[in-house]
Specification:
The termini are far apart. The chain is globular. The chain has helices at residues 16-33, 42-48, 50-65, 76-100. It has 101 residues and is an all-alpha fold. The longest helix is centred in the C-terminal third of the chain and has 25 residues, at 76-100. The chain has a domain at 50-101.
Length: 101
């Protein structure tokens, strides 16, 4: 019987958590921008909305808090994947809105 991520399986992907970070923040960025796509250019939307700054602060703060937790670890690459996912989601949502409008 095949079980996903079983300890006996040969599947060993070290950076799976980075893909999860990227995907979660891609969805978060996409959901952030989707209702706002028709209000201007991408840079105008990001600069005018305080929500974009909050999302950036959020991604930095959740990793910063892990510095003080014994059961979690701080990782700069998690921050990078969060920010890249957030920017990708915002950009993807904006492009979909522009193309659909």
């Amino acid at each position: 019987m095949v079980k996903p991520f079983d300890s006996e399986s040969n599947f060993n992907f070290t950076y799976l958590d980075k893909i999860v970070h990227f995907t979660l923040f891609l969805v978060l960025g996409f959901l952030y921008i989707t209702p706002k796509f028709d209000t201007g250019t991408l840079s105008q939307i990001i600069l005018k909305n305080k929500s974009a700054y909050f999302l950036l602060f959020f991604t930095l703060s959740i990793e910063f808090v892990q510095l003080f937790l014994t059961y979690r670890s701080f990782d700069v690459f998690d921050i990078m994947m969060n920010v890249i996912g957030l920017i990708s989601g915002i950009t993807l949502g904006w492009f979909m809105g522009v193309l659909g409008a």
